[in-house]
Design brief:
This protein has a four-stranded mixed sheet, with helices on both faces. The chain folds into two domains: about 80 residues, Glutaredoxin (3-Layer(aba) Sandwich); about 240 residues, no CATH class. Helix content is about 50%, strand content about 10%. α2 packs parallel to α4, α2 crosses α10 and α9 crosses α13. The chain has 15 helices and eight strands. β3 and β4 form a beta hairpin. The chain is of the alpha+beta class and about 375 residues long.
Length: about 375
């Protein structure tokens, strides 16, 4: 192992290769901050990132290097690394709250990429100067053609917005659904500082990914969030502070809501999300199951791809509006967690879970199963038997 990867071991801290404007990095950074885990954040241009990315199997962020030199790629994997070794403190013990926590984590990972990409890249007059600074800062000062590389990166990422389903025909609906989501979340955070009470659950960290890195920092969507949903913006701030930061709630307590309670306001949030999450996930599952039957990939074949790459695209309807987007198996990798959790419970609890999902417009997710599982092997999501 290169000494550059483990030099933080001298003081027992971790290295987080990241970027302030990264969607997925926000989840990992927030978790480290909230749990008081010492870390040093480094840019992709830092010495050591290239080797860390090689060990992480993909040149994506975030990548965490532990004091012992272990490399963990992906924000969800970083959170699970700490959760699994500390008794899952951010996973509620009640089955209904645990379901909600996992579901919001999945939604944060994949369910809000469309508005996140749209509001970043389709308002260049407001955002581009801000983004250009951040992308320029990823490269070392002595990097040849630094400005050209910055522009190339921005052009490439701007194209991903359309690949995710944002076009002139769909833009109005993408914005309408996002505004409905902001409104519903703003009502929810009137009563509680986090999704499920007085402390964050895993779902808070997942949901933060798009609502911080893109939608809560980029000038245009950040201004929109501040004006339209100030309580949501406060939650974004709160999730990036080590303390509870909930003085405006006075007596909210510091634990999850009692008796496995699921607020009606949270169910309303999910009914908004379900309007495009469910049809896209259904189309994705159908596509992947057909693809699996035709291609039969070998066990261990990667099931994730570089940004903007995929094995195909899907078409689906949202409020009678046609969308076309890339297939993302990563969504189903995370949905498996809900299926596994559901299967672990007795019939009575399963009935309660199913009833809750139905009330949220999400009951069909229990049926969106792939014919083969996706596992994580040596930092890479791969097809299993």
């Amino acid at each position: 192992m290169d000494d550059k990867l483990v030099q933080s071991a001298k003081n027992g801290s971790y290295i987080l290769y990241s970027a302030p404007h990264s969607l997925y990095a926000g989840r990992a950074r927030s978790y480290l901050v909230k749990k008081g885990i010492p870390f040093e954040e480094r840019s992709l241009g830092h010495d050591g990132f290239k080797e860390a990315a090689t060990l992480g199997k993909l040149p994506t962020i975030p990548i965490l290097v532990t004091p012992l030199g272990e490399v963990i790629r992906d924000g969800a994997a970083i959170v699970e690394h700490f959760e699994s070794t500390s008794g899952h403190p951010c996973s509620p013990s009640g089955p209904l709250q645990n379901l909600m926590s996992i579901l919001f984590d999945v939604i944060g990972a994949e369910g809000l990429r469309r508005p996140a990409m749209h509001y970043r890249w389709n308002y260049p007059e407001d955002n581009d100067a801000f983004l250009r600074h951040h992308f320029f800062s990823l490269f070392k000062p002595d990097t040849p053609d630094r400005e050209q590389k910055t522009e190339t990166a921005m052009v490439k990422l701007r194209s991903v917005s359309e690949l995710r389903g944002v076009t002139n025909d769909t833009r109005e609906l993408v914005e309408a659904l996002y505004l409905e989501l902001l409104d519903a979340l703003n009502v929810h955070f009137e009563h509680t500082p986090y999704l499920l009470g007085g402390r964050p659950c895993v779902g808070d960290f997942g949901l933060l990914a798009p609502l911080h890195g893109h939608l809560g920092r980029d000038p245009h969507p950040a201004g929109l969030m501040k004006k339209r949903a100030p309580r949501v913006y406060r939650w974004v701030e709160r999730m990036n502070r080590a303390d509870q930061d909930a003085s405006e709630y006075f007596d909210c307590g510091t634990d999850f809501l009692p008796n496995d309670e699921i607020p009606v306001t949270l169910q309303t949030v999910l009914r908004v999300v379900a309007q495009d999450f469910i049809p896209e996930t259904a189309a994705s599952a159908d596509f992947l199951n057909l693809w699996l039957s035709q291609k039969n990939p070998e066990v261990g074949t990667p099931a994730v791809f570089r940004l903007g790459s995929s094995i195909g695209s899907i078409e689906f309807l949202v409020r009678a509006q046609a969308f076309k987007a890339l297939v993302v198996p990563y969504r189903h990798f995370h949905l498996q967690r809900i299926h596994r959790m559901f299967d672990e419970h007795d019939n009575l609890t399963q009935d309660q879970i199913a009833q809750l999902l139905k009330a949220c417009g999400m009951d069909n997710i229990l049926n969106f199963k792939l014919n083969r599982q996706i596992g994580r092997l040596d930092n890479l999501e791969v097809w299993l038997d």
